Amino acid sequence: MRLRTTSFLIWIVAASLLIGGCARYPQDPHGSLDRALTRGTLRVGVLRHEPWVTGAPPDAPGGVEAELIQRFAQDMGIGVSWRWGNSEDLFEALEHYELDVLIGGLTSANPWSRHVTMTTPYFTNHVVVALPPGVTFPDGSPAPAQTPALISRNGGMLEELAWLLKRQELDGVTVAVRPQSSLQETLRGRSAVVVERADLAGADGPIAAEGWEVLGLGFQPTGADLETVHYVLAVPPGENALLVRLEKTLLHDTTPAHIAERLWEESRR
Amino acid sequence: MKIRRNYHLPEAQQEMLGKAVRLEWVTIFFLLTITLVMYLTMGASQAMRTAWIEDVLSLVPPIAFLISVHFRKRAPSQRYPYGFRRLPTLAFLVAAVAILTLGLYMFYDSARSLIGQEHPALGQFDLFGWYVWSGWVMIVALIYSMIPPLILGHMKLPLAKEVHEKTLYAGATMNKDDWLTAGAAILGILGIGLGWWWADSVAAGFISIEVVMDGYKNVHQAMADLTDQRPTKVGGNEPLDLPDRLCTEVR
Q1: If we measure between CA atoms, which residue out of A232, A241, A220, A236 comes closest to residue A259?
Q2: In 3D, which of B99, B44, B49, B92 has the Cα closest to residue B68?
Q3: Which of A262, B113, B192, B239 is deepest in the core (most CB within 10 A)?
Q4: Residue B36 clears pLDDT 60, i.e. is over it
């Protein structure tokens, strides 16, 4: 029994080394990556979502994610064919291998993740309540000297815990937020008083804004973490070769800081 | 009712039982570490999830055994004049039913994902800042999950036979056969890497069939014991030759 198990283990390790060493590993069940390389074009579905994806048909999109795709295609030496559309059409096309990648400020909470494959999050953003420089809360307490990182790469449980420890109560605090922002609901849930304000930069009290916005504005983040959002791209279901190659570009060729800067620049346009 | 005296094993067997109890605690410790490691790495692989459930299940026999050993030491009382010597068999039945039920559920789950043509996604895994294909990380976790149960299973098997403990034996067999589960899951993951999306569900199905067989065998055994079948040897249905040997000795 011992001998059988040992020889089995050795066989497994040998097989792994052999497979891992040869050709491309992992491979695509549907050959998406190989086909894209042969075709010479990457078929990209585009959902408009500022500042992640900007522009309108028939022009090529701009924005952070469009740039990432351009870099990805360039690295592989192929071109890009953009296809604008609505969410349902594009996701269905992706599910049926008619597209190679889908961009549009998608998050890991997207329900289509059951039908297509999402990349590992390449950017994690915390939506927080922030104070203008030199301003304190109504009760006089200043913003904490240190908060956990506003932006990161797939922080995980430890990061959530860090934010939980710094938690700031918002009872009765007046927070300015953009009109029609989904954050209004979240803020009311935390017993804050919501005030609408189109231009957050000129606020003289607490505001609720995206992490990269807070960094760009130079405001002081507080411990009031309203939302954590993980941004991903989508590829056809189970296409692991394409997934791994795309993730390589996303994770190795960019940093959260750089993405935050680009998002801020794009949002100023 | 007359309260019976509690039964005590002879010295040698008592010592072996003590050793078995210690080994079961060690098993539980290693199984917990294995469960944690596998949970952190399992991702979207059906085969790995099934292997993980099987590892969680293999905690059941040791726990059942330890509980039954604890209660058996209790002296018989007015309420329980025969003592608690039925407890191991009951614990054994509970364990076996749990294993059988979960095995059936796991089989249903793998069949469902195979029929639904689910294509598992195995991308990059963040290993403390280094990015590596998640398949490799899973395979390493699975190899780790193979080793402690294999060693411990081999150590417990002879002990189980000596002290005639069926729960211990069932647990030890499950541990020893763990390498089959991990091996199947590894092959499933290597298969996905080769582009065979179905390799994962098939491996999961294979693992679940193994669990069902384990569960069925043990349920059958436990039921036989509870219905006062003639005593059998540990780990099989052969009748214990004790009555015959006794006759020969006495003559």
Answers
A1: A232
A2: B92
A3: B192
A4: yes
Highest-confidence segment of A224-228, B42-46, B238-242: A224-228
What tens digit of pLDDT does each residue of B97-152 get? 888 988 898 899 899 989 988 899 998 888 877 888 999 999 999 999 999 999 99
Q: In what order do the strands lie in the sheet with A101-103?
A: A79-84, A41-46, A101-103, A234-235, A117-118
Chain B residues interacting with chain A (CB cutoff of 8 angstroms): 118-124, 126, 131, 133, 135-136, 139, 143, 146, 150, 154, 176, 179, 183, 186-187, 190, 192-197
Question: In Å, how far is B111's CA from the nearest CA of chain A?
Answer: 17
* Pair of tokens at residue A69: 């795709």
Q: Which residue has the tokens 């991903």?
A: A232
Rounded-to-10 torsion of CA A204, A208, A195, A63:
100
For residue A51, is the peptide bond before it cis, meaning its omega torsion is within 30 degrees of 0? yes
Tell me the two tokens of residue A51: 């500042």
Looking at CA atoms only, how far is residue A209 from chain B in angstroms? Answer: 28
B149 backbone dihedrals φ, ψ, rounded to 5°: -60, -35
**Rounded to whole angstroms, how far apart are CA atoms A124 and A127?**
10
Quote the CA–CA distance of B238 and B244 in Å, as a whole number.
14
pTM, two decimal places: 0.82
Q: DSSP character for A113?
A: G
- Cβ atoms of A166 and A129 within 8 Å: the answer is no
Q: Which two tokens mark A240?
A: 């692991």
Looking at residue A22, what is its pLDDT?
Answer: 58
DSSP state of B232: B
Residue-wise pLDDT for A148-163, tens only, equals 888 888 767 778 888 8
Closest partner residue to A26 (CB to CB) among B122, B186, B187 is B122
- The pLDDT tens digits of the residues spanning B179-197 come to 888 999 999 999 999 989 9
Contact B124 A244 (CB under 8 A): yes
Quote the CA–CA distance of A32 and A50 in Å, as a whole number.
28
